Amino acid sequence: MTQVLRISEVHAREILDSRGNPTVEAEVTVDMEPEGRRIMGRAAVPSGASTGRFEAVELRDGETRYFGLGVTKAVNNVNTKIREALLGINALEQGLIDRILIEQDGTDNKGNLGANATLGVSMACTKACANALGMPLYRYLGGAHTRLLPVPMMNILNGGKHADNTVDFQEFMIMPVQAENFSDGLRICAEIYHNLKQICNQRGLSTGVGDEGGFAPSLSDAAEVLELIVESVKAAGYTPGQDIKIAMDAAASELYDETSGTYYFPGESQMTGQEVRRSAAEMVSYYENLVERFPIISIEDGLFEDDWDGWQLLTKTLGEKIQLVGDDLFVTNTKRLDAGIKLNVANAILVKVNQIGTVSEAMEAIEMAHKNGYKTVISHRSGETEDTFISDLAVAVNAGQIKTGAPCRTDRVAKYNQLLRIEEELGNVACYKEPFNKI
Predict the structure, then answer these.
(1) What digits encode the pLDDT tens for the residues 7-21?
(2) What is the reported pLDDT for 347?
């Protein structure tokens, strides 16, 4: 007999994310037939600070409470329109559920119901089903072939919109590509992180942290940041470029001045005493120089999200040497990704489920990427919760890479701890491998 899990209740509430701002938490309850038991799944929605203009829309109240960031409108949409549309539906039919959510919203960007409303319910449905079937979430999402633990792309130094300092690029990350397994890689990253803190202390640099837990000292430019990271890797007893490779998120759309068509570096300008602007071609040359000098293996959002010509130049110049990740460029959207594939732009996609608003659409983007030889990086947002959905998703789709912050703050560490549990549960089946063997 085919299993049926009828949705008997859908409920949402307003909770706080890691920045102390409101977000949506949704609960979906299912009835197990014919047993009659009720099982619930709960999911919390993350929120970004550095957001692409093509992302699905977070519905905010715009009122005085919480400085306009309240989500009671999105919560009300869950508790009324979405609830009415989903009651009685078989929760095991995830594609149908997500299609109903998309149709109920009726816009291209989830601007009606809010992506924070649709995503909370979409994720909660998967959790309710996994709980009802007595399965780990990664197994429910991914099936029998689920086995690959992701290599951490661990943020250890923050800049840009994620920190109050002079570092213009948003994230500097380390990747333990030669670790024996995930738990070993996590340990290595944590050791480097603590060595970085010691070095910052010795130099009188700030050890306050940014939104994602990375340290946020004021430094003159990217090269100075990278030198500091290389020193920290060596201090921890590891070899840069062999044991550890470096990833960067430039978040270049945040630096782009559409009036002049140049990239303005406010922090570097402040530290050098003269205005620093770069054209797209100069940005590509700048990255090329950094890649030659430092063990950089991945650059995310190296150029403005709508600069397709610049992205083609960047891909032509560095695409055979390193990973070029589209975040604001692709926004977990198959239409944007398809355009990038046809234009031979980038070679990897960052996957953020709240950029698109349903689990099904996120998994469709992952499937398209894999079919076309693009690598996938499952990612958190700067405004996070204790929800560990993305840890299970990374394993479910055999993504191979996860970006979920520093080994600092529970909202980040919760994801790493969940991956440790999954690795233990998979046992000898668990796989962990170098994600850049074809670059």
Answers:
(1) 999 999 999 999 999
(2) 98
Name the token pair of 271. Answer: 């530290």
Cβ(233)–Cβ(243) under 8 Å? Answer: yes
The answer to whether the peptide bond before residue 34 is cis (omega within 30 degrees of 0) is yes
In three-state secondary structure terms, 435 is: coil
Residue (of 203, 196, 198, 202) closest to 158 by Cα position? 196
Is-contact 123 353, C-beta < 8 A? yes
Question: Contact 243/294 with Cβ under 8 angstroms?
Answer: no
**Which positions are annotated as active-site residues?**
212, 352
Q: Are 85 and 104 in contact (CB under 8 A)?
A: yes
Q: Residue 102 is encoded by which pair of tokens? A: 């998309």
Residue 205 has, within 13 A of its CA and on its CB side, a CA count of 21
Helix (H, G, I), strand (E, B) or coil at 380: coil
Which helix (H) or strand (E) element contains residue 326? strand 323-326
Classify the phi-psi angles of 373: left when phi > 0, otherwise alpha if psi is within -120 to 50, otherwise beta.
left
What the block records as the tokens of 110 is 């989830």
Residue 124 identity (one-letter amino acid): A
The sign one gets for the Cα dihedral 133, 138, 143, 146 is negative
Q: How far apart are CA 288 and CA 53, in angstroms?
A: 27
Report the DSSP beta bridge partners of residue 325.
300, 348
All residues at 6 or more sequence positions from 146 whose CB lies less than 8 Å from its CB, including other chains: 138, 139, 395, 396, 398
Q: What percent of the chain has pLDDT over 90?
A: 88
Do 228 and 195 form a contact (C-beta atoms < 8 A)? no
Q: What are phi and psi of 152, to 5 degrees?
A: -65, 135
7: Cβ contacts below 8 Å, ≥ 6 apart: 28, 29, 30, 86, 87, 88, 89, 90, 91, 125
pLDDT at residue 280 greater than cutoff 50: yes
